[in-house]
Amino acid sequence: MLLALLGAISPLLSRASAPPPVAAGGSSSDPFAPGLRWSFAAPPSAPWIPRAVALVGDGELCWVAPAGGTPSLALFAAAEIRDPDLPLFADPGLSGAIGPIQVAAGDDPGELFALVQLPGPVSPLRRTIATCHDAVAAAGGAAFAPCWSHEVGVPGNGPALLATDAGGGVLVAAAFDAGSRRVRLESLDPRTGALLAAAELPAPALRNLAVAAAGPCAVVLAGDRAVVLDLALATLHSTALAAAGAGLALSADGTRIAVGDGGEVFLLERAGGAWSRRTLLAGGLDELAVGVALSAAGDVLAATWWNGATGADVRCMIVDAATGTPRAGWAQAGAAGSLQNFPSALAITPDGSRVAVGLWGAGDGRPEVVLLDATTGATLLAADLPGSALALALDPGGTRVAVAMKDTHANLFSTTGAVRLYDTGERDLQLTRGLVVGGRLELALAGPPATAAIFAAGTPLVDPLPLALLGGDLWIDLACPILLLPVPPGPDGRAGAGADLPADPALAGLPVAVQAAALLLGGGIELAERVVRVRVL
């Protein structure tokens, strides 16, 4: 059925056209220019501040949790080159939510998880609710409401956290009760919300929670201890913390764990059934390790440091995780009379090549968001926000950064914020709008001077077909219908193409791979380096 529907798009070839340029309200309508792509801000009449954000799949969707006066959950198309008037989908049914709303996502738009706290039976107790939203079902006509909901443990009066693996196959929630000084941990079935396992740990606080990207284990910073757990939530290892650190990161296989502990970053490493601990980095005088991030292989580590004496000096170190040998660094020194700066967010690409840092900022025109090359320390993207970055997400290729921000500095009063999407402009093939049922497929290519550009969209292959003569791989299944969009490029090699999609709800969830090629002026064909992988919503 899905193949037949994809084939139904092919007659629309005659309507293929270049998308017109669109003004974007302060963001760039050029998909190959670095900088702000779009911003979605809270109106004063319906205030909210987002404190959690996730990029879904290959960075084509942005899952965010506006919280505060009008809390909700919202899903955006990351590819837009215009400020979105509305998200693709939103669930405003979170009235009464207390504090930040946590979000997590797998690699599929049917795996959009959230954790919200609601008033409990008596004050100050809270109920902690985990939910899952399915954007594919919503695209097919269902309400964008939780497809399942699960209440975690018993009411408590502390914070709650949520974590999933990269594929969305493991989901762990944690809630803290200050009255009993215990952390409640629950492992949930991501498909149904069913409780798979539960554990409770004595602890004076809940600092952080993470699941290994490949899903074999979870780690919780429970007050004065870092505890490693298997997926049945049995304790595999526990080690004492010297300070109330919150930095935590895992390698994909969970065999290397980085923890920021006061003035140091230490590693827990597993060899066979044994765990060892060693200090990897030590901060300078009055410095605290605030955030840590590890590459998937566990070979590259990034750490952010904050000077507690000045309150305004911050820096990022990128090192070899095996030896601590420096690879690159970046810093912002405080200025007299400036606002308190603080490293609020840190992310690294799976291959360890790029690092994104989010800051409260000093309110002095310097950036609150920076994207760094992990080898040279070069700044690849920098953004001066009107307020403070509270959270960020980095796509796997390190070309997009989604930012949850407050409209003013973190230490100044405000009830409004925004979610922003920044792009380095490096993708040579870009979607320029969200791919939705009854909408329009819009594409842009930045290629070499050419006589023609050809865009191809079809069913993705699980394993690519090598194209030795073209120096690349084919990711589209030639045995299935293919949409071809040939267009003449401009003199600079840029080309755009578009085609309408049928308004058929059965298209919802259809996986699509898009590739492009340029027919060179001197002969030959050059494939675009980028392959777009997206689901129709």
Write the layout of secondary structure elements.
Blueprint (H helix, E strand, L loop, with lengths): L1 H8 L25 E7 L7 E8 L4 E7 L5 E5 L11 E3 L10 E4 L6 E8 L6 E8 L1 H5 L8 E9 L3 E5 L6 E7 L4 E7 L6 E8 L5 E4 L6 E5 L2 E5 L5 E6 L7 E3 L5 E6 L2 E8 L2 E9 L4 E8 L5 E8 L6 E7 L5 E7 L10 E6 L5 E6 L9 E5 L5 E5 L5 E6 L5 E7 L10 E7 L5 E3 L8 E7 L3 E9 L1 E8 L4 E5 L6 E5 L6 E7 L10 E10 L4 E3 L4 E4 L2
Antiparallel strand pairs: 1-32, 2-3, 3-4, 4-5, 6-7, 7-8, 8-9, 10-11, 11-12, 12-13, 14-15, 15-16, 16-17, 18-19, 19-20, 20-21, 22-23, 23-24, 24-25, 26-27, 27-28, 28-29, 30-31, 31-32, 33-34, 34-39, 35-38, 35-40, 36-37, 40-41, 40-42
Provide a concise account of the structure shown.
By secondary structure, the protein is mostly beta strands.
